[in-house]
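Report of the visiting student (M.T.), summer placement. My assignment was to run the structure pipeline on a short list of targets and document each run. The first record concerns WASH complex subunit 5.
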Amino acid sequence: MVIGRLRSDDIYNQVSAYPLPEHRSTALANQAAMLYVILYFEPSILHTHQAKMREIVDKYFPDNWVISIYMGITVNLADAWEPYKAAKTALNNTLDLSNVREQASRYATVSERVHAQVQQFLKEGYLREEMVLDNIPRLLNCLRDCNVAIRWLMLHTADLACDPNNKRLRQIKDQILTDSRYNPKILFQLLLDTAQFEFILKEMFKQMLSEKQTKWEYYKKEGSERMTELADVFSGVKPLTRVEKNENLQAWFREISKQISSLNYDDSTAAGRKTVQLIQALEEVQEFHQLESNLQVCQFLADTRKFLHQMIRTINIKEEVLITMQIVGDLSFRVSVLFRRVGVLCEKGFADHSRKHVYISSKDHKASDSRYH
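After the run finished, the structure tokens were exported:
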């Protein structure tokens, strides 16, 4: 029953953090490691159940064969499953040199692309609050691609994962090193930059979450007051250059003010939907009543729309984003990487960069957290 559940279900609920099909094996990596261990308690499956093993390999190991069991302990399935006929046969497609070449080339391309993106994001002043709130999916996708590429390249180029006396494993590793254009210094720099990017994003989201309701209520109050002031303008009570009294517009703006004030923070879905409708209504009233000719009225309307847009951005700040970053940024598969790369660190002169140490330490701390296993 345990093997059946591990084969069919997402028991760690990780797939939602990795929505893209090409990330599926990474999403299921912890479950795959558990399944690998438990299969040894039912060795007949490894020996003779070819259909089950083919199903397992197609789901969990179509593009990877070096897995992390626990806290940096790695296993190369090509070596571990060599004595088991069904398991070995099922793994043949994954270990085919054309597939090895395809995966290595793909991750080489991905790592180069995302590294350029991350370096752009890390430029001073680029990650502003407004930019982050408008590009949450894009930023999370970049973070996923970074971590998936780092994971694959570190695991499949690790010296410990390849027996130098095994000709086939040595050939596969040489193929990976060639096709992935592997450079340990560049990979380590990508790890550092990704850690810094993740650290900054997390800190920004924590700050935004703590201020979320206060800011939302402030934007609501400002938007409502702008509409009340505009209603006073069209009532003739509050003089404004070239604005004639208009009772219909006065009543309409007062109603809009009331609707903004009635928005409920606790019902975020309904509030978000209603806010979008209010923005559309303000755009339409400016067009249909020829209000463009009065710059002061246009400014009132533009300010109100800006506050309403800020309300939508603010209401979309959700804790799920932090949870996704925590899942995606799990580095427990290579705890030993920091110790193995100390030489690279010193050689490149990073040891004196204390700020980098803070970012990488945030990943190392997470890697040592047993809650992820």
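The beta strands are 66-70, 73-76. The radius of gyration is 28 Å. I thank the supervising group for their guidance throughout the placement.
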